[in-house]
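This section describes the prediction task in plain terms. A model, or a person checking by hand, is given the sequence of a single protein chain and must write out its three-dimensional structure as a string of tokens. No templates, partner chains or ligands are provided. The sample shown here is typical of the held-out split.
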Amino acid sequence: MIYPDVKKLTQEEISMLCDEYRKNNFINPEISEKLGVKRGLRNPDGTGVLAGLTNICDVVGYKKNEDGKVIPIDGQLVYRGINVQTLVDEGIAKDRFMFEETAWLLLFGSLPTPQQLSKFRALLEEHRELPDGFAETMVMSAPSPNIMNKMARSVLAMYSYDEHAEDTSLENILRQSINLIAQMPTMMVYAYQTQRHAYYHQSMHLHYPVSGLSTAEHILATYRDDQKFTHDEAKLLDLCLTVHADHGGGNNSTFANRVVSSSGTDSYSAIATAICSLKGPKHGGANLKVMHQLDDMMLHVKNANDEGEVADYLRKVLRKEANDRSGLIYGTGHAVYTLSDPRAQILKKQTRDLAYGKGFQKEYDLLCMIDKMAPIVFQEEKKSSKRICANFDLYSGLVYRILGIHEDLYTPIFAIARVVGWCAHRMEEVEFANRIMRPAYKYIGDSQGYIPLEDRAYANRIAASAQAAEEEFIPSEDILLTRSGMKKHD
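The expected answer:
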């Protein structure tokens, strides 16, 4: 470690505190069902609880029939009324970088004219460089083993460099948004270079932004030691940024951003909150889990095109006998998409040639087999009719590996793309929602009287004796419902 660890508690101290917590805290998940609590803000059929309105993005993965039953359909991702596939096709047909155009579309709600797009690209290019002294003071002075934590801290630190940091007018939030979209790639690369020097004992290569580059080209030019990259490599990275730019108001990081924004806080606090959410392995960190799973498959699956062999491996994963023993097939399943994730299908199609050309054929073929076999194996093992599909994370990690990007940057690149959506949703929340979010939690704890400090030792001995007499008594359903304020009806 570079710095001394945070002061630790002894194992005895930790055990004592945890025992005290476990003794006094338990919530039976079955009570949630009886009280109608929508855990994870999900309805009983798995669909999301309606929490707001948006003009920015639509995520379509199912429809409902007249009886309200969820009907699986092929997924669609729609930016401001335009299918993301249309944007991808335009970039391929015209050989254009599309991320900047997508950013304009999400922020402002319309497609830019050639003049607007040119000025917008120039504006981002002009603001990529960090403030004087920022890299040395805020990034390099305190290396982090996790780039996402360093990016969140760096975004928060920008508050100190902004004399209008607290201004929540549309004009000011928009100014801050442009700066964050432009500067976060630079923050990421500087944080990575500092990390590799401090933790991997490698040389740092800090490159200043080069003029005339798209966001994808800028990332590769500042990340790579020799600053060299091919057009095809930059186009593939641009594709990832484009399809990652937003995913509706309900995804965890965007919702976190909107919750915090609803309190009236500043832009840097809101975006840093979103970064912290995205870090989680159940959200943006999932692509790294996919790659670790793929590495394990490479060791245990000899024929990447053998459906039976791949299916056997996936069964072991679900049975917690393979990979990390979590029982999860990473890169599959989604809260909204049922039959297909359009982002995954786009990457699957556009990645093949580069994967084969750069020696990643087996890895690519294995991911395609997971895509094909996981839904079948899942239904067989779980005895379930639920439909699952490959999600974006199944293929994105391989894209970054093909591009030679270190795995520590997989999720940070996701953040660089998604900050566009975060900024768009923050503006919408502040301008139009204008009400602090405050959902309810029902209290189900016991009532207890206050015992004077000098009497508590005796009271604890009495309680311990009573507990021993009960011999691990488990409250009945009637008691639990009464405690929660409900009555059981015949």
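For orientation: Residues 170-199 form the longest helix (30 residues).
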